[in-house]
């Protein structure tokens, strides 16, 4: 059935249903194994390979390079559907789509063709950006330096989500000349070690742990100045999280409705002879579903702002690009707290429609709140309302790119 038939609203384009149709059987298969993977802590190697083989990871690439030329609203709607299947898998492909977006927007035709061909050939990318411990706010501890005419990478990264599944790793580092740069290294080079040591209580299957680099050769001796990366990267990466949250809420809504439909036991102080006819239970289901619907609708609205920023960047108009990105940032910031609250509430109150049996591990309902709560911590909402308020009252533009570290 279409998204409209399921009452999740129309897709972001007239061709969306045709674009999504080939992937939906795969999403269904991924969803069927989601609970057992969570309980057994099995990483989604096979699921990510299946997405690659099906062309999902190249969907943003133009047809010339083997992709489907999806626009950004179409991509983010697909991500909601994937997250409805398993939010761990969506989080694991976030770095890949971020690198793809960077390449799609690259002003360097040689770089663009090199990597788009590889992405179209179903190559998969991981990341190495964040650093923990005594990492500095102003500079990366990971470095790029020259050795025998070859640029090499040394350092340690954390939150390297999806990198364990990757062929290539896009790494942010400090060049020996002092500039922050981005480089690509092979996941399989000697000197690369990726550890599955992420121990968060949610999103546990994303391999978001440590990556170590020791004298790793930089592909093609190429560095990209951080300032040259695609300009709307911050709202792009953050919207990825919001799409994941919207998919989690949709999955929770579907599960709780199905469980209430099958429930035969009722409480003596309830309102009907079946849970499916109890108006108070139905009210809970409606609230969960309404929250999921609203979260998805907001994600698609922000994706439209990102599409405008992308088009402005491709047009090569710096003033138009800066204005479009600032608005996309504000639209994103306006959405973070709202979507976070909607999804955290939805994944909490599903249990109010069920009995104590709903806490059984084999149902896996707890994973929705755990995953949502974990994602929300990666998308710090405590600053967002202030940024939006400052814009509304004082016209202050959003801060743009930001990092975390010791001052």
TrEMBL record:
GO CC annotation, single: cytoplasm
Transmembrane segments: none
Catalysed reactions listed for this entry: dibenzothiophene 5-oxide + FMNH2 + O2 = dibenzothiophene 5,5-dioxide + FMN + H2O + H(+); dibenzothiophene + FMNH2 + O2 = dibenzothiophene 5-oxide + FMN + H2O + H(+); dibenzothiophene + 2 FMNH2 + 2 O2 = dibenzothiophene 5,5-dioxide + 2 FMN + 2 H2O + 2 H(+)
BP term (GO), one: L-leucine catabolic process
Pathway: Sulfur metabolism; dibenzothiophene degradation
EC number: 1.14.14.21
Name of the protein in question: Dibenzothiophene monooxygenase
Organism: Bradyrhizobium arachidis
